[in-house]
Each structure stands twice: as structure tokens, then as C-alpha cells.
Design brief:
alpha+beta, Sufe protein. Chain: A, 3-stranded antiparallel β-sheet, 3 strands
């Protein structure tokens, strides 16, 4: 049986290491929380958020300074589908994007919460 031998140049190894490290880089931090202290404009707002291979595009409806609904327009995930039915309801019930993640769907939960927060931030009224 023949042994296969691979040789890589230093430049190739360096490039491979950079690619691996870039994949491990931290994503932007979104400060999630309650909307009770914010003044929000009525309307429907959308935003997206990506964490690693997981992406969520969310639509949030705001009325009278309350979150009426959180809808998932797109959700790319490998095993996080179970977060789709749970996280939007938790956000509406808590009136906050700082809710518990779904076990086994952590990245999907975070992507949905962060996209929802970014959509809510779009509705914020600037202080006068």
C-alpha cells in the first residue's frame, strides 16, 4: 500500500491558518435588553445578523412602544431550527431581546435575538 505524502509551502500553511483564525473571529456585539426605557416609532422594521454559519433575517412590528410580533423571514442554520418557534415568542412575551437561548440551538437563538435587537434599534426615536 502506498503512503500519500502532502507537502505544503510555508505561505500555504500561513494562509490556511489565517483563514481558520478568521472563521473563529468574534462577531459584533449587540447589546440586547428591555425596550421599556426606549421611545420607539410605530412600524415594521427588519434586520439581519450572522454568527458563524448561522444567519437570521428578522422583521419586528412595533406599536405604542411595544413589540407586537417578531417574524423570521430567513434563517440559515444546520441544527438550530427549534429556536425558530421559541425565541420570537420569548421576545414578545418579555418585551426584551435578552431572553434565554434554546438548548442545542445557541447560535440560532443568538442570531435571532441580535437581528431582532438591530431591527428594534432602527425604530428608536432620537432624544430631543
Amino acid at each position: 500500500m502506498k503512503k500519500l505524502r502532502h507537502t505544503f509551502s510555508k505561505k500555504t500553511l500561513y494562509a490556511m491558518c489565517l483563514i481558520l483564525l478568521a472563521g473563529c473571529a468574534a462577531t459584533a456585539i449587540v447589546h440586547r435588553g428591555s425596550i421599556s426605557q426606549k421611545k420607539l416609532q410605530d412600524g415594521v422594521y427588519s434586520a439581519d445578523y450572522r454568527k458563524g454559519p448561522v444567519k437570521a433575517v428578522i422583521e419586528v412590528e412595533i406599536k405604542k412602544n411595544k413589540i407586537l410580533s417578531v417574524n423570521i423571514l430567513e434563517h440559515r442554520t444546520m441544527r438550530g431550527q427549534k429556536a425558530e418557534a421559541v425565541i420570537p415568542n420569548r421576545i414578545v412575551q418579555a418585551q426584551s431581546t435578552d431572553v434565554d437561548v434554546v438548548s442545542g440551538a445557541t447560535y440560532s437563538s443568538l442570531a435571532i435575538m441580535n437581528a431582532a435587537q438591530l431591527a428594534i434599534d432602527k425604530s428608536a426615536v432620537a432624544d430631543e
